[in-house]
Amino acid sequence: MNSTQGPTPPAPPEPQDARPASGAGASVPPAVPPELPDPDVEPPRRWLPSLVWIVPLLAALIGVALVVKSVLAQGPNITISFVSAEGLEPGKTQVKYKDVNIGSVKSIRLSKDLSHVLVQVELTKEAENFAVKDSRFWVVRPRVGTTGVSGLGTLLSGAYIGVDAGRSSESETNFVGLETPPAVTIDQKGHQYTLHGDSLGSIDIGSPIFYRRVQVGQVTGFSLDKGGTGVTVQVFISAPYDQYVGTNTRWWHASGVDLRLDASGLKLNTQSLATVIVGGLAFQAPPGQSAGANAPNGTMFRLGADESDAMREPDGTPVRVVMNFNQSLRGLSVGAPVDFRGIVLGQVTDIGVDYDPKTHEFTMPVTMDLYPDRLRRHSRGQMPMQSTPEASEMLKTLVKHGLRGQLRTGNLLTNQLYVALDLFPKAPPATVNVTREPIELPTIPNTLDELQLQVADIARKLDKVPFDQIGTNLNSALKNADRLFSRLDTEVVPQARDTLSAAKQTFGAAEATLQQDSPLQSDVHQALQELTRTLQSLNALSDYLERHPESLLRGKPGDKP
């Protein structure tokens, strides 16, 4: 009842029972109730709430407090882009850093172009420092790669999102996730360097890096140059091994097996068994030299194809040279060495063909890059500096004294050729134009080619010999000889037989005459004896006359006149 409507009217009196009361016989008049005063009604006080509203008010306050607390405790929301959502589930997949939960996946949706997935992640309040520009995210799942097996723990617990905390002060909410875990995290101590080489070889992300056969780092990334002329490799050297990387450090591919056959015998060299399978890199200072000052972070180095290539001294600016050969270049390839008496001065860079329509002849121009500083380095500075007038005059003098290019066989098994520079004093005269680009150097055929030319010349001369006519004449001569032998057999042989019989008789008579018991032998023997006595007498006479020459006039003493 509303208190504002005034006093309530009194209730009507109840009707009296008209029947007389029993036992008395006489009626008693009803009692008249006393008249009550009107109640005083006081209006309620409007400024005091009713107690019934306190409970919902307290509930509302508690709800607001919980909402405020939830909002204040909520971390940042970030979006990570992945190629695939394999192993990720909203509300279940966690975000972990060093195996500590710092967030969870809230939703997963496709991008507008359907090329990747967008994963919305809610980080905890304590992990708000992870939402910076250089943080990296990736999905941790079982992986088998060249560097080993990783993520085996997720076989039972399921995949999760790993994170590498960035150090930037700039906030970020959109990230591009990595498809493979990073080889090096930001909190690892060490230095990163950049290597530039001609080829990637067999290395990959995570390939080991060795210093004196001790693993000290790994490859963290690589990319192809814009022009496609080489590759750039990022490497990380862990502390404290980064102190061995100096400004004079040389880097090279240590992949596979280095097999060499030289004057010292057969040599087999490799860094480790791992490099044979997955490849690797190595670095070291040149023998007898220091590594120099410590290289700062991000220093770029040249990556050599092997250790000998890396340890070679800087070559300086190459000189482009062309040589025209009038012979077959079979066995000569781009990259073939150019040496001067065993010193490699450069390599072949191009092989071409030129045709002269006037003479209808072909020449084979071979272009090569030469490094004169290599020869100057071996001469202990006695040769003039490159690109000086003295160097040009020296080249002219050498060509005048027989400097020529010659193709020689470098390997008898593969028949590979190389270009040799040498002095040939008996070579035909030639000149060189040092102002031409590229410089054209004269050539000379090698010994084998000269022998082939001589054999060809002999063959041409033999080809001019009239073997058919000689054969005809020889056939006629043989026929004449046959007729001659026939005549000898029919005419000369009988006469010769008679002559031989007469000679036999003559020899028989002479033999009978010369026998010991023949009269001729006795007479000859006596004659010889008389001749001997006569000679003895003459000998005695000559001795006497030598002693007594006057006896020729006076005679012997004792003789009578």
Describe this structure in words.
The protein is of the alpha+beta class and 561 residues long. It folds into four domains: 72-176, no CATH class; 190-311, no CATH class; 319-460, no CATH class; 466-511. Helices cover 27% and strands 28% of the residues. The protein is built from ten helices and 26 strands. The chain has helices at 54-73, 154-157, 273-278, 307-311, 372-378, 389-400, 447-464, 467-513, 519-547, 551-554; strands at residues 74-82, 94-97, 100-110, 117-124, 136-140, 143-145, 148-150, 160-164, 174-176, 190-197, 208-211, 214-224, 231-238, 250-253, 258-262, 265-269, 281-284, 300-304, 319-325, 337-340, 343-351, 354-356, 361-370, 403-411, 416-423, 439-441. Strands 19, 20, 21, 22, 23, 24, 25 and 26 form an eight-stranded mixed beta sheet that branches. The chain has a seven-stranded mixed beta sheet with strand order 5-8-2-3-4-1-9. A seven-stranded mixed beta barrel has the order 10-13-12-11-17-14-18. Strand 22 and strand 23 (361-370) form a beta hairpin. It is rod-shaped and about 250 Å long. The N and C termini lie far apart (235 Å). The model is unreliable at 1-11 and 15-26 (pLDDT under 50).
Total strand segments: 26
Q: pLDDT below 50 for ≥5 consecutive residues: which ranges?
A: 1-11, 15-26
The whole-number mean of residue pLDDT values reads: 80
The profile of the biggest β sheet is: 8 strands, mixed
What's the shape? rod-shaped
Cα(first) to Cα(last) distance is 235 Å
Number of helices: 10
Which band does the percent of strand residues land in? 25-35%
Q: Any idea how many domains?
A: 4
Proportion of helical residues = 25-40%
Q: Quickly give the structural class.
A: alpha+beta
Instruction: Calculate Rg over CA atoms.
Output: 62 Å
